[in-house]
């Protein structure tokens, strides 16, 4: 037992000295995740910490890739310094506040993580021709990842159960956060340490020749390849249906084709060393036929993609699907016509296209999407004769369906910082109002703003009709002299704050506002808010009031809620309605 313990601690110590930057990034990510969980519980979550945790998480795979590269070419400290500079630069590319974060940054982060993992797969083999060493290296990484997942899962479950047992048997009464903190630490830093222990000395062990794992062959032969056959049958039957009915393919068929292709490529990579083994004829047949089976599916994939692109233009997801289709086409051409093909082409080509999609001027995903949606908006305006002298004529009739399409395109472009382009489409008297409306780029708010800008907005018969009214406070300065406490909160959720030993729960999950004191007394502000709207029911659009506020007593306290803006969107075919708002101020004083 002692010998085993010393052996494990010895390996752990060796790993710490061999991969210090990888483990450092894992620790930063773990502590960042723990801190975020604690702050989210207290409703004080830090957006900067979100971005920091994302960058440190990206650093785990990046630093591992650079360590593997340094084992091939040396220059460890130079590579690690370059990696740190890259991560710091990436951190400053990301927005500094939650308001500016949108799906564009989500795509950037997702692609960056994929690129960092692809880098691990080939970075040490750029100048190497040994195909088998490359395969052995990636096979061992794959096996180590699977083993790490199993070991980490067992370890985490065991430690969590041990904490639970101590808590229940000895009445320690641990805070619930202990379980989450342990989970984040073991799932991130713990799994990273286990993975590195499996990798031992790194590159020399990972690329070492070894016997082909029986489990891997079984997994490929009896699980992956049968799944591929099922996928292929479904997709080919669907292709025949399209030809018979002569109808355009559905959009989601693209994802099925990509899934089939990815699973097939994975299967090819897993059985790669066996294709030259004459006793494994099934592998040779599979390796030869797979790319030929992909050809008609690639054609179907391009038809499905361009069906969407021609109808709605480019967005980032459609751009990436098209890029994957081009990558898949390049694989088919390369492996069918190149007699000396190398499997290194697969991760390397995908990495190059991924970098292209992020940074290539004019043709990257974000430039193409913005340019395409601008063109789609202009096309929509011209088709409906809404442009006069380069600006929108708001005196022309417009249908609800056109307003809805315009709202979607406006929302897309506003989130991508294209407000100046949109403002050039409006007359000067409308620009000022739009500038303020664009500060909150929510679909319903943009839709409401556009609808109110047009003099005549026809509605299709049978289409749902909506009444929208926004109450806006005229003052930006709030006098809180007579109040002792101020809480800032947002809609759609629950927030709890403790004041003088009293717990206030602000419940606005249902787009209404209810405040509960110490889980006993409560006050519902919804009727008071409804009254504000009823007092202005005969008005439309945005109504400015001296103050938009509601107040009430609750226990020994007096509470006042002040809204900068609050909007109702009521379906006239139903009895109920909802309210929408962003930041609100919650003022409290003892009576």
How would you portray this structure in words?
- Residues about 460-465 and about 570-575 have low confidence and may be disordered.
- It is built from 19 helices and 16 strands.
- The radius of gyration is 30 Å and the shape is globular.
- It has helices spanning about 1-20, 20-40, 45-75, 75-95, 105-120, 130-170, 175-200, 205, 215-245, 255-270, 280-310, 315-335, 345-360, 365-385, 400-415, 420-425, 430-435, 445-455, 525-535, and strands at about 385-390, 390, 395-400, 455-460, 465-475, 485-490, 495-500, 500-505, 515, 520-525, 540-545, 550-555, 555-560, 565-570, 580, 585-590.
- The chain has a four-stranded mixed β-sheet, covered by helices on one side.
- Helix 6 packs antiparallel against helix 7.
- The N and C termini lie far apart (about 70 Å).
- About 25% of the residues are buried.
- The protein is about 60% helix and about 15% strand.
Please sum up the structure shown.
With 591 residues, this protein is α+β, with helices and mostly antiparallel strands.
> How many β-strand stretches?
16
Distance between the termini: 68 Å
User: Helical segment tally?
Assistant: 19
Strand content: 5-15%
Radius of gyration: 30 Å
Low-confidence stretches: 459-465, 571-576
Helicity range of the residues? 55-70%
Structural class: alpha+beta
Mean pLDDT: 85
> How are the strands of the biggest sheet laid out side by side?
11-5-14-15
> What does the overall shape look like?
globular
Largest sheet: 4 strands, mixed
Task: Outline the secondary-structure elements.
Layout: H1 2-18, H2 20-41, H3 47-73, H4 76-93, H5 103-122, H6 131-170, H7 177-199, H8 203-206, H9 214-245, H10 253-270, H11 281-312, H12 316-337, H13 345-359, H14 365-383, E1 387-388, E2 391-392, E3 397-399, H15 400-414, H16 419-423, H17 428-437, H18 443-453, E4 456-458, E5 466-473, E6 485-489, E7 494-499, E8 502-507, E9 514-517, E10 521-524, H19 526-534, E11 541-545, E12 549-554, E13 557-562, E14 565-571, E15 578-580, E16 584-590
Parallel strand pairs: 3-4, 5-11
Antiparallel strand pairs: 1-2, 5-14, 6-16, 7-8, 8-9, 9-10, 12-13, 13-16, 14-15
């Amino acid at each position: 037992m002692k010998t085993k313990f010393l052996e494990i601690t010895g390996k752990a110590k060796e790993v710490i000295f061999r991969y210090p930057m990888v483990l450092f990034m894992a620790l930063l990510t773990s502590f960042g995740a723990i801190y975020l969980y604690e702050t989210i519980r207290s409703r004080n979550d830090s957006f900067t910490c979100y971005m920091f945790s994302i960058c440190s998480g990206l650093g785990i795979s990046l630093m591992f890739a650079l360590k593997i590269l340094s084992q091939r070419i040396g220059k460890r400290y130079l590579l690690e310094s370059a990696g740190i500079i890259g991560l710091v630069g990436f951190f400053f590319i990301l927005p500094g506040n939650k308001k500016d974060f949108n799906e564009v940054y989500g795509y950037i982060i997702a692609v960056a993580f994929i690129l960092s993992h692809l880098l691990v797969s080939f970075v040490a083999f750029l100048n190497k021709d040994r195909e088998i060493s490359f395969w052995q290296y990636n096979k061992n990484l794959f096996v180590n990842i699977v083993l790490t997942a199993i070991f980490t899962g067992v370890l985490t479950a065991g430690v969590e159960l041990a904490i639970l047992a101590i808590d229940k048997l000895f009445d320690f009464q641990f805070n619930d956060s202990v379980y989450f903190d342990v989970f984040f630490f073991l799932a991130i830093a713990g799994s990273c340490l286990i993975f590195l222990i499996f990798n031992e000395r790194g590159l020399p062990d990972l690329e070492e020749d070894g016997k082909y794992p029986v489990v891997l062959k079984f997994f490929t032969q009896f699980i992956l390849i049968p799944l591929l056959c099922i996928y292929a049958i479904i997709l080919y039957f669907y292709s025949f249906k399209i030809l018979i009915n002569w109808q355009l393919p559905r959009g989601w068929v693209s994802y099925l084709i990509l899934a089939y292709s990815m699973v097939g490529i994975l299967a090819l990579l897993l059985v790669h060393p066996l294709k030259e083994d004459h006793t494994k004829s099934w592998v040779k047949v599979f390796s030869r036929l797979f790319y030929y089976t992909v050809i008609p599916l690639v054609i179907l994939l391009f038809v499905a993609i361009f069906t969407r692109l021609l109808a709605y233009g480019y967005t980032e997801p459609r751009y990436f699907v098209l890029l994957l289709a081009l990558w898949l086409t390049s694989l088919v051409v390369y492996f069918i016509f190149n007699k000396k093909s190398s499997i290194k082409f697969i991760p390397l080509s995908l990495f190059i296209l991924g970098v292209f999609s992020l940074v290539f001027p004019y043709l990257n995903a974000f430039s193409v999407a913005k340019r395409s949606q601008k063109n789609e908006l202009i096309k929509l305006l011209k088709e409906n004769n809404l442009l006069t002298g380069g600006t929108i004529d708001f005196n022309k009739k417009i249908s609800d369906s056109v307003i809805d399409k315009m709202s979607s395109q406006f929302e897309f472009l506003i989130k991508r910082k294209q407000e100046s382009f949109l403002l050039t489409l409006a007359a000067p008297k409308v620009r000022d109002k739009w500038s303020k409306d664009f500060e909150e780029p929510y679909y319903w708010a943009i839709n409401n703003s556009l609808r109110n800008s047009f003099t005549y907005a026809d509605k299709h018969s049978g289409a749902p009709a909506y009444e929208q009214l926004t109450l806006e406070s005229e003052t930006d300065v709030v006098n809180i002299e007579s109040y002792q406490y101020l809480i800032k909160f947002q809609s759609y959720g629950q927030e709890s704050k403790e004041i003088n030993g009293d717990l206030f729960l602000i419940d606005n999950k249902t787009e209404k506002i209810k405040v509960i004191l110490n889980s006993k007394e409560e006050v519902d502000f919804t009727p008071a808010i409804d009254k504000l709207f009823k007092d202005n029911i005969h008005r439309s659009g945005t109504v400015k009031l001296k103050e938009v506020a509601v107040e009430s007593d609750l226990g020994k306290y007096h509470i006042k809620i002040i809204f900068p803006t609050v909007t109702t969107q009521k379906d006239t075919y139903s009895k109920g309605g909802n309210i929408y708002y962003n930041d609100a101020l919650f003022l409290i004083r003892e009576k």
